[in-house]
Automatic annotation (TrEMBL):
SUPFAM superfamilies assigned to the protein according to its UniProt record, in alphabetical order: PLP-dependent transferases
Example of a GO biological process term: L-tyrosine catabolic process
Keywords recorded for this protein, A-Z: Aminotransferase, Pyridoxal phosphate, Transferase
Cofactor: pyridoxal 5'-phosphate
GO MF, any single term: pyridoxal phosphate binding
Protein name: Aminotransferase class I/classII large domain-containing protein
A Pfam family of this chain: Aminotran_1_2
All copies of domain Aminotransferase class I/classII large, residue ranges: 39-397
Keyword Repeat tagged: no
N6-(pyridoxal phosphate)lysine carried by residues: K248
Family statement: Belongs to the class-I pyridoxal-phosphate-dependent aminotransferase family.
Length: 411
């Protein structure tokens, strides 16, 4: 190409800082071996698909086909989402004790879009937000883009990844806009007890810093000792924003539909809700076809579908614990919800493994097995596996991790 007079390249330094650790690992930093005597097994993304043993229920497939065939949903909708689609969210999740209506719902591009909308609506440059570590890292590129500071509070792997509340409290100041909580947790596969949620709420109340709850795994606990509770129901007085999506629980992450629900109790979020609606006018609504499908999906997909999915995830969690327990140098933390498991790495056992990134890179190169280092989730010395895979594949992962460890133990 003849560049002619185009000699000065455009730059936008603030944007060049923006980093999504998972996507960067997958698309840039890690290289899948081009040839290998073992086939690739990829445990990086929470993608419950047919190939991974999670076919869609008929209702979901019919919903999108009907939306296409009706030819009624090829135009624009309201910026915050079609009224019918928002009403479907109300019908599914609003309760008598914790009510909200369709004007409190903004439909977005997946749960990611809900996060971006709420962070943007709530925060100005110089503000800070408290987020969990280990935690889902989308908040990093979002806050980098907005000039907002992230402050990490710690989850305790020794105590089922409950929040170390003192690490929240010590970081709150008058620029703290909200505390982000994720329950059930990606990446930890943990579920909060009701008592723990009450403690978190009490802390938020004491400091008058609202909670924003990422509940994309709504209802997805599969351990009787840890039933799922929504923050909206544990306390029906506090102002609260929750995130949801069909991505994970309905097994269609690629369809890109999520939402934010504003529990605007006492009108506390009046200004923020208005901001969210204005921002929705920039990026406009998610696909009108998927919005229309949402109505049928939320109404017609039977409870038995979730029971089946959760039973499979529980089997996967048990299997992963079984195959990884007893391998010297790694220690799985049993998963009780969502679709992930964290595995602790005991670096002292190994000769030549620097850290979790090094562990995962070498595991990929030597065993063609791809798992994500906990550095992607702001934490050290762990890796995350996804559980939505067939049991044979989880067994195979266990074998490869075992062989890998044997090749790297201290002599
Ligand atoms: C997957 C995930 C998201 C992103 O969801 P999308 O609907 O795919 O945008 C957000 N938060 C958590 C905790 C997740 O696991």
């Amino acid at each position: 190409m003849d560049s002619g007079k185009w000699t000065k390249k455009p730059v936008a330094s603030a944007r060049s800082e923006v980093l999504n650790p998972i996507r960067t690992t997958l698309e840039k930093d890690f290289k899948i071996p081009e040839t290998h005597d073992k086939n690739l097994i990829n445990f990086t993304l929470g993608e419950p698909t047919k190939a991974n043993g999670y076919p869609l229920p008929d209702e979901t497939k019919e919903a999108i086909i009907e939306a296409v065939e009706s030819e009624k949903y090829n135009g624009y909708t309201h910026s915050s989402g079609h009224l019918d689609a928002r009403q479907a969210v109300v019908d599914k999740y609003s309760t008598e004790e914790a009510p909200f209506d369709k004007d409190d719902v903004v439909l977005t591009f997946g749960c990611s879009g809900a996060q971006y909308t709420v962070f943007s609506a709530m925060c100005e440059p110089g503000d800070n937000v408290l987020v969990p570590r280990p935690g889902f890292p989308l908040c990093l590129p979002i806050t980098q883009n907005l000039g907002v500071e992230l402050r990490y509070y710690d989850l305790d792997p020794e105590d089922e990844f409950s929040i170390k509340l003192d690490t929240v409290e010590s970081q709150i100041d008058d620029k703290t806009k909200f505390i982000l909580v994720v329950n059930p947790s990606n990446p930890c596969g943990s579920v909060f007890s009701k008592e723990h949620m009450e403690d978190i709420i009490a802390l938020a109340e004491k400091h008058q810093v609202p909670l924003v709850a990422d509940e994309i795994y709504y209802g997805f606990s599969y351990d009787d000792s840890k039933p799922f509770h929504s923050f909206a129901h544990v306390n029906t007085e506090i102002p609260l924003i929750t995130f949801g999506a069909i991505s994970k629980t309905y097994c269609v992450p690629g369809w890109r539909l999520g939402w934010a629900i504003v529990y605007n109790r006492g009108g506390y979020f009046d200004n923020i809700l208005a901001n969210m609606q204005k921002l929705a006018m920039i990026w406009l609504h998610p696909s009108s076809l998927v919005q229309q499908a949402l109505v049928k999906i939320l109404r017609d997909v039977p409870e038995s579908y979730f029971e089946k999915t959760k039973a499979k995830l529980k089997e996967a969690s048990d299997k992963a614990c079984e195959v990884l327990t007893g391998i010297r140098g790694v220690k799985p933390v049993r998963s009780k919800g969502a679709m992930y498991m964290m595995v602790l790495i005991e670096h002292d056992e190994f000769e030549d493994i620097e850290d979790d990134v090094d562990f995962c890179k070498k595991l990929l190169n030597e065993q063609n097995a791809f798992v994500l280092p906990s550095t992607c989730f702001f934490a050290k010395n762990m890796f995350r596996i996804v559980l939505c895979h067939p049991l044979e594949k989880i067994e195979e992962l266990g074998l490869r991790i075992n062989e890998f460890c044997e090749n790297h133990y201290k002599k």
